[in-house]
Sequence to fold (228 residues):
Amino acid sequence: MQTAIFSELFPLFNAASPETVEWLLSITVEHEYPAERAVLMEDAWGNAVYFVESGWVKVRRHAGDDFSTLAILGRGDFFGEMAILDESPRSTDVVALSSVKLLSISAQRFIQTLFRDSQLHHRMLQLMVRRLRQTNFRFQLRHQPPAIKLANTLVMLGESYGLPSEYGPEIYNIPLKDLADLSDITLDETSKIMDKLVSKSWIKIAPSRQAIYLINMRQLVHLAGKIQ
Fold:
């Protein structure tokens, strides 16, 4: 992969120097996982940071005898950084939703690179703060109607990872249980709202292509903004 493509694909490296990007490219390790394969396990010590080259993964946490999905990550995003920054076991699992291609950088080399390149260090902090703000915003939505919560989830996924298509932004056909967890609503509510969005032609679900098309992004954004 060329350095320009690498920097464009991963926003984390937009501000890094060309020398840093070239160095990182030389030490990355490629991984491929099929759908439903665990990539990282909870309580495992962090030894690398992972970058999503293609595909989708979900971050989940044990909740009794079940799992709760905390985040969905797509192309261009990264995970595993918290475990190496505070030198503690991972607090979540990461599982492939679709077949995925990942790049990894060992913890030691990643930390060394952050110390050497102050711009990369600053960019890393910016992205982590953005994630914290997103988490805080989801918390603020906890008393909102289910439709507003789900619309916010779909808009966030579309804006962060959506690929352009003839029908509008295309995202992965995320299982309803994961959408429900992300939106903090019930599975039944998620199913009914998704059916209604399809009937209104705001979204289109194509199971054969494992895709959800956000046909009417404008209306979804409008619904997501109806915070009471």
About this structure: The CA atoms of residues 128 and 213 lie 28 Å apart. Residues 3-139 form a domain with the Jelly Rolls fold (CATH 2.60.120.10). The chain has a mean pLDDT of 89.
